[in-house]
């Protein structure tokens, strides 16, 4: 028995450590994988970081499991932090889990941004803003369980369940965005799932984050009965057996769990009169020793599996987070390609930087966008945008080859489009003659297909928000390629509209409901496309004045001629040949796109059909928006039409609009 004491003590300590790990739900990933930059030991940032983490080790009780510790320090050494517990975890387990995470981060990481994930909680800190900001800097993924009996049925049932939970969680308040649920998959599989967002996110941000997490499931867990997807702003987990506390919808509703000290002590003798029997004592000791041995074996297995999983999990996370690095170019490579950004290689200057022609070592020609120093983006946001735009693959969109991020340089490397932008041809009295009607009609159709891809066929629904002739580039065969996604807005799957207080874009191309009230939908791109059609057909800019006595701009002039039965009057005089029927049809479609009534504007899918099939009967357009008319026309024009000199739009212009004058740029893009 004397020799058993030290062994028992060791195993008891190991058991306590194992129970502690169980309390926090198990280690999930290397916390430093989220690092975006190092700091030096004993630096100001290091001191601020440790002070912040110490605050998490002494957090006081709350009843919903979200902790936003105030920022520590001032820029550039300011540190921000948040912690979130899973919605079904009890308060004391929550706080213990967060304390463990804070200690792990303090002892493991020398990066300016890091996150520690356990099954029961998450803690992250950053030198960037955190509260109210959805972070898409990669998701950790883990498969669980075996293969489902019917993979297709399991996948369909899981998709339906997760979508319903996404809606429920996103609709939660500022205290908690958390939902659990269960469904059945044929023939015998049960599915339990849990989703959660940090409650500082908006409903749309939460919904979008969860949708992106769902997209990671096929990469790790297709056909599996379980899986975990953990990100800085949201988590998803599912399994064929229940893994959450179904009786606790919110933290704090259950009484605290009993302390280990309140449990009856471990007894080596049974409560009977024969407890002194040698045989009884021997059996008890052997039974207890067997239990201890079993615990020891379990501990060894746990440690070995944990080490094995750590390697797997780190590889998974690195693959997800660092995928953007495959697009990165060295600065020296780009300097060589552009002859050190020489004036001879300069293609143009936009509002967010200059564009240079370059030739890589393999002979490939590229266009290099050199963003100005005051672009206002951090490294992380810049990389996220690169990842987004690089995924857009369509023949009518400019392809992004990669980027360079070294020191203060932020460079975007696009495919080289030799014929510059559409406006360089369309509004030049000499070059416009190169644009025959057949070429213009091809350009209109190509732009429509590119926008349709953004709205309906890409992985995410994207509203461009700045469609105009200068953002349509032409390749060597005069095929159009849409560029400049710097003002693009992402919609989650199923989302149709949103609102913003920051209106960006170019006047004349902006739909009235967006310019005046900040209302966002795919129909604002439809409006801009309508303006593009009218410009391409007429060869005139949107704000030109054709009739001095009537003061009509392009839209007003097109509408007036349409109503008078003379639509061909606005056609570019340089178009001496071409189908008049096609020209009239394009004017018709353009007027349908710029209707004031948003609901009456066609979708891009309908527009593509209108352009490619003459068997489709076009509806009659109603009055458009944003056209000027004189007093003599006011009796025949709708009184609801907007006047470009009106006070509503004038106020919007002064207070919130930002014009884009660049040709190829990528600036502040806010995924939602």
TrEMBL record:
Identify the domain of life: Eukaryota
UniProt signal peptide? 1-22
Principal place where this protein is found?
A: membrane
What is a single molecular function from GO for this protein? ATP binding
UniProt keyword annotations, A-Z:
ATP-binding, Glycoprotein, Kinase, Membrane, Nucleotide-binding, Phosphoprotein, Receptor, Repeat, Serine/threonine-protein kinase, Signal, Transferase, Transmembrane, Transmembrane helix
* Protein topology in the membrane: Single-pass membrane protein
Any one annotated GO CC term:
plasma membrane
- Write down the InterPro entries for this protein, in alphabetical order: GNK2 (IPR002902), GNK2_sf (IPR038408), Kinase-like_dom_sf (IPR011009), Prot_kinase_dom (IPR000719), Protein_kinase_ATP_BS (IPR017441), Ser/Thr_kinase_AS (IPR008271)
Where the record annotates domain Protein kinase, the positions are: 341-626
Task: From the UniProt entry, list the residue stretches annotated as the region Disordered.
Answer: 640-672
Which spans does this entry mark as compositional bias, Polar residues? 655-665
One Pfam family this chain carries?
Pkinase
Q: Where found in the cell?
A: Membrane
A GO BP entry is: response to abscisic acid
Per UniProt, ATP binds at 369
Protein name according to UniProt: Uncharacterized protein
Positions of the Gnk2-homologous domain = 27-130, 135-243
């Amino acid at each position: 028995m004397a020799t058993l004491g030290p062994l028992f003590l060791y195993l008891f300590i190991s058991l306590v450590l194992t129970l502690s790990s169980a309390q926090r739900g198990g280690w999930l990933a290397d916390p430093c994988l989220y690092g975006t930059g190092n700091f030096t030991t004993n630096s100001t940032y290091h001191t601020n970081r440790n002070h912040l983490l110490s605050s998490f080790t002494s957090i006081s009780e709350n009843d919903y499991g979200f902790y936003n510790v105030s920022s520590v320090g001032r820029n550039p050494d300011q540190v921000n932090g948040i912690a979130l517990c899973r919605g079904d975890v009890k308060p004391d387990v929550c706080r213990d889990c967060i304390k463990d995470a804070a200690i792990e981060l303090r002892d493991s990481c020398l990066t300016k941004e890091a996150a520690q994930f356990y099954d029961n909680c998450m803690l992250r800190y950053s030198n960037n803003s955190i509260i109210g900001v959805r972070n898409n800097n990669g998701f950790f993924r883990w498969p669980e369980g075996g293969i489902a009996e019917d993979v297709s049925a399991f996948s369909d049932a899981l998709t339906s369940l997760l979508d319903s939970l996404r809606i429920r969680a996103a609709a939660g308040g500022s205290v908690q965005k958390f939902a659990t649920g269960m469904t059945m998959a044929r023939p015998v599989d049960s599915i339990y799932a849990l989703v959660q967002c940090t409650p500082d996110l908006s409903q749309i941000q939460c919904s979008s984050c969860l949708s992106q997490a769902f997209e990671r499931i096929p990469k790790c867990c297709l056909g599996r009965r379980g899986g975990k997807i953990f990100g800085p702003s949201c988590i998803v987990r599912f399994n064929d057996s229940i893994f959450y506390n179904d009786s606790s919808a919110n933290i704090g509703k259950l009484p605290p769990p009993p302390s280990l000290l309140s449990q009856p002590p471990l007894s080596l003798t049974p409560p009977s009169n024969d407890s002194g029997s040698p045989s009884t004592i021997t059996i008890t000791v052997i039974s207890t020793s067997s239990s201890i041995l079993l615990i020891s074996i379990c501990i060894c297995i746990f440690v070995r599996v944990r080490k094995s999983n750590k390697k797997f999990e780190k590889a998974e996370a690195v693959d997800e987070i660092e995928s953007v690095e495959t697009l990165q170019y060295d600065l020296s490579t780009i300097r060589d390609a552009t002859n050190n950004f020489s004036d001879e290689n300069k293609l143009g200057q936009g509002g967010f930087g200059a564009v240079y022609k370059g030739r890589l070592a393999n002979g490939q020609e590229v266009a290099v966008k050199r963003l100005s120093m005051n672009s206002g983006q951090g490294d992380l946001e810049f990389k996220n945008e690169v990842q987004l735009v690089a995924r857009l693959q369509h023949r009518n969109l400019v392809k992004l080859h990669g980027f360079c991020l070294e020191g203060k340089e932020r460079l975007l490397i696009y495919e080289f489009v030799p014929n510059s932008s559409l406006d360089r041809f369309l509004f030049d009295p000499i070059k416009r003659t190169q644009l025959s009607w057949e070429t213009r009609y091809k350009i209109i159709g190509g732009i429509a297909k590119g926008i349709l891809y953004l709205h309906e066929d890409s992985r995410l629904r994207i509203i461009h928000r700045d469609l105009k002739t200068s953002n349509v580039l032409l390749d060597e065969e005069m095929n159009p390629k849409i560029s400049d996604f710097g003002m693009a807005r992402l919609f989650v799957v199923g989302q149709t509209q949103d609102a913003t207080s920051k209106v960006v874009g170019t006047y004349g191309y902006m739909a009235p409901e967006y310019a005046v009230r900040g209302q966002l939908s795919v129909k604002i791109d439809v409006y801009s496309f309508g303006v593009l059609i009218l410009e391409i057909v007429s060869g005139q800019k949107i704000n030109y004045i054709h009739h001095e006595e009537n003061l009509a701009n392009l839209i007003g002039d097109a509408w007036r001629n349409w109503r008078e039965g003379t639509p061909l009057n606005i056609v570019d005089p340089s178009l001496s040949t071409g189908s008049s029927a096609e020209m009239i049809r394009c004017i018709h479609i353009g007027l349908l796109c710029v209707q004031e009534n948003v609901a009456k504007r066609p979708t891009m899918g309908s527009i593509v059909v209108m352009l490619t099939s003459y068997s489709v009967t076009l509806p009659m357009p109603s009055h458009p928006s944003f056209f000027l008319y004189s007093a003599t026309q006011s009796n025949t024009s709708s009184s609801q039409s907007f006047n470009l000199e009106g006070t509503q739009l004038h106020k919007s212009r002064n207070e919130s609009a930002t014009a884009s004058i660049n040709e190829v740029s990528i600036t502040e893009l806010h995924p939602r």
